[in-house]
Amino acid sequence: MIREIEMKSAGFKDRVCDTIYFGGGTPSTLTGMQLSEIMEALYKNFHISDQAEITMEMNPCDMTEEYLANARRLGINRLSVGVQSHNDYLLKAIDRRHDSKAAEEAVKRAYRLGFHNISIDLMYELPGQTPLDFEKSLKWAVHLPINHLSVYSLIIENGTKFGQMAERGILKRPTEEESWEMYQMMCRILPHYGLERYEISSFARKGYRSRHNLKYWDLSHYLGLGPAACSRIGHARKENNPGVRLYEKEVLSGNLPPEEVENLSVKDEMEEYCFLHLRTREGIPLQDFEERYGFPIEHWFGREIAMLKERKLLKESLGHLFMTYHGAALGNFVFEQFIIDE
């Protein structure tokens, strides 16, 4: 990792880095010394702002007092904790090592040690989960010392335990009605406790939106480091090969890690601009779209926008086009309308 940092930083000497994110996988399995060496390399090779948001994903089981104190000493100032549920039965079903008590203690321990910018993840549509389970998780979460919460539905991947159970028809998942009830719960309960929704899956107290994640949704540039890491620089999207051994072999031989590069056409980027901005509360800034792509958005999507407005899935106000409450619940359908037919 340090060798890759040293090689890739040469192309970014004139850039100021104002967010760093350790995530994807479980970075808290790094030892304190490894984390220290990586942070030192980042500061040595990149121009990092004094006000940078530096986030680290952590598992509750890894959040010992010693580990947290070291992370804070190194400049980590935001945590994203994989809590997932308050229901211990569900946590066991999704192979989490912690229980709800350990998760609560870990979050409170981090706050006590000076981490006052903490996000947690919750999941819904888990096998066997009921709306009451999810409601209990939400009401438990809002009383933790957090200021950001991400809520994700379970995605069934082929080859996983749940994927195999689904193929055999024995995976008990919530019904559509139950899923809709869970969705309504999070949209109602979290704002009541001061966590406003600012993106489809993200809720934050005022002033605590994830600055790093906003870069993805705003099509800003970001550099990924490590196996399978993704970058978006200019009009290209890049992804390092996921193989750890190949990564080690190439980088330690003085070569950049193998990567796949996708050069985005204007069409590709325009579609992505619409998808990603529509995920956010503010939606598509219409003047910015026109300045980027030369024509008003109706030039490409006039009929689709009219149809979505008529169905009350999209709304336009103060120069922004954004999804309504019902539009966000049917996000995939809305996004599909912004795919340009060849």
Automatic annotation (TrEMBL):
This is Heme chaperone HemW. GO terms for biological process: porphyrin-containing compound biosynthetic process. Residues 1-196 form the Radical SAM core domain. CDD domains: Radical_SAM. It comes from the Bacteria. Its main location: cytoplasm. Transmembrane segments: none annotated. The lineage of its organism: Bacteria, Bacillati, Bacillota, Negativicutes, Veillonellales. GO terms for cellular component: cytoplasm. Keywords: 4Fe-4S, Chaperone, Cytoplasm, Heme, Iron, Iron-sulfur, Metal-binding, S-adenosyl-L-methionine. The keyword S-adenosyl-L-methionine applies. Probably acts as a heme chaperone, transferring heme to an unknown acceptor. Binds one molecule of heme per monomer, possibly covalently. Binds 1 [4Fe-4S] cluster. The cluster is coordinated with 3 cysteines and an exchangeable S-adenosyl-L-methionine. Gene3D superfamilies: 3.30.750.200. It holds the Pfam family Radical_SAM. Belongs to the anaerobic coproporphyrinogen-III oxidase family. HemW subfamily.
